[in-house]
From TrEMBL:
<dbReference type="InterPro" id="IPR015947">
    <property type="entry name" value="PUA-like_sf"/>
</dbReference>
<dbReference type="InterPro" id="IPR003111">
    <property type="entry name" value="Lon_prtase_N"/>
</dbReference>
<dbReference type="Pfam" id="PF02190">
    <property type="entry name" value="LON_substr_bdg"/>
</dbReference>
<dbReference type="InterPro" id="IPR046336">
    <property type="entry name" value="Lon_prtase_N_sf"/>
</dbReference>
<feature type="domain" description="Lon N-terminal">
    <location>
        <begin position="4"/>
        <end position="182"/>
    </location>
</feature>
<protein>
    <recommendedName>
        <fullName>Lon N-terminal domain-containing protein</fullName>
    </recommendedName>
</protein>
Length: 211
């Protein structure tokens, strides 16, 4: 059954479970924050891609207002809930300044492939090691989902949107495996090249071949 949801299009992709901090300055979205506080409503962030509002988006709940500025601007904390599909986009909700849409909730299949999970974990470890981000890997929970690492895998915004389109964890795993198998060799070779460049001009203590 479709329902009306306030919409806040942004040029980014938000994944379920993600915490997002936003600085609010436009009057229409300041009004949206007030409605969230007063009526406990949620709102959606559909990515604004290719000069248009995407069909899919992520429902958000306002967690708190971090700061109120004298000019009316706000710093807010939000948390992502689930994915929705827009049936009908409205530039203004009834009697409001902000956009809205009739949306359907998207059901997600959380089942994963443990073999793919192990491959992804190994690829992510190697990627983070190469980039000097070992702590990021150590902070990763054993039961992590693709959504938990998707922003740290070198995806473009369009590629991240493809993950929103996937309706199962298995499908997302397959997308990530293919992506990491493509970029990991490039990253590793780039890091080796950087090491060689750094060594260029240094005095080298090398053992000559014994022949």
């Amino acid at each position: 059954m479709p329902r009306l949801l306030a919409l806040f299009p942004l040029s980014l992709v938000v994944f379920p479970g993600e915490k997002l901090n936003l600085h609010i300055f436009e009057p229409r979205y300041r009004q949206l924050v007030r409605d969230c506080l007063e009526s406990n409503i949620t709102f959606g962030i559909p990515p604004y891609l290719n000069e248009g509002v995407s069909v899919l988006g992520t429902e958000m709940r306002l967690v708190g207002v971090e700061k109120n500025y004298e000019g009316g601007e706000l710093d807010i904390r939000t948390k992502a809930l689930g994915i929705f599909r827009i049936r009908d986009f409205q530039r203004e909700a009834p009697g409001k300044l902000y956009a809205a849409g009739q949306v359907d909730d998207i059901r997600d299949d959380p089942h994963e492939d443990p073999v793919l999970k192990a491959r992804i974990t190994d690829y992510v470890r190697r990627l983070y090691d190469a980039l000097g981000l070992r702590k990021l890997f150590l902070d990763l929970a054993p039961d992590y989902r693709i959504y938990d690492v998707a922003h740290h895998l070198g995806f473009s915004t369009e590629q991240e949107y493809q993950l929103l389109e996937a309706t199962s964890e298995l499908e997302r795993q397959e997308i990530v495996v293919e992506h990491l198998e493509n970029i990991l060799p490039i990253v590793l070779e780039t890091e080796r090249l950087k090491d060689r460049v750094r060594l260029n001009g240094h005095f080298k203590n090398l053992t000559p071949p014994n022949f």
